[in-house]
Amino acid sequence: MSPSCRPSSSVIATTSIYHLPPTCVAKAAALLRGHPDHLESYLCQQYSVQALWRQGVEKAEVIAASRDVTPTNEPHQSPRTRYVMQLLGQVIWEAELCASTSQSQADLFERATPRHLDRSRGVDRSSSPEARVVADGTCVRSKLRPRPQSAGIRKKENTEEFGLGDLQRWESKVSFALYMKAQHHKEKQERARLRNSRIEVVRANNAHLKQEQAEQQQSRWQCRSKDHQERVARSKGAKQELSELMMNAAAVRQAVLETNRRKLVKEQEESRSKRIEQETQRQHEAEQKRRALLQEKGAGRAKLRATREISHKQAARLERRFS
After folding, report:
1. Could you give the residue ranges of the DSSP H alpha helices within the chain?
2. Looking at the record, which segments are called Disordered (predicted)?
3. In a domain, 243, yes or no
């Protein structure tokens, strides 16, 4: 796997057990089912140590967490078993990726190494020093030819051969190089100053815009709050006015009912008194008639006997009625 396609250690550390490679999960289960020494020996390997360091986990933590944990073939494991299998699977995946990455880098180095520098092929040292030949037929520089001087010796010799004009030219070139370096430094400082000024202007504009937005939001909130308070006041006033109207209507209705009741009571009293007066008048008239009849009965003729009996019955009926 190339380093560009390799998932990062943070991605591996956040990968759930359900998304880990099945081979890593199976290997983790096998290590947990086996002897504890097998797990410890696996964690002591080179790529396992590197994987533990990349995952930020200590070997003692993994061993302590895997103690008394035995995976089963059931689909639902306990939370502790799932956690240990997930942790060990992540370490195994990281170790396999480290191993594959180092192997791919070694292969890349083998492909990039020239064939005439391949040490596995070697040089035939038994040949003569005048013409040594590599195993694949490439010739090595013969010792009969003059060997070129090193750069340090050539520089020393050239320095000794320098004249006054060459020294002046060298000093002018050095001064020009220093001047250009200073100019470049000034230009970099100017560009940095301009960039910082632009950044400050943008920050100031952003701060001003944020302040304006906050003020607008505050004003809108105040307007909404004021409108809400006005609506509440109007609603309370309308409800209070309606309540007063209803109370007035109830009071008027009660007054009308009371007036009607008093009027009815007065009419009933008047009709009753009138009826009593009429009955009293009738009784008085009947009494007068009875007395007249009694007088006639005591001193009158016998032909008035039937009339006296009728009057006596009417008087008895009236007495029973008003008694």
Report:
1. 9-13, 22-33, 36-43, 46-55, 59-65, 79-112, 151-161, 164-299, 305-322
2. 208-237, 265-323
3. no
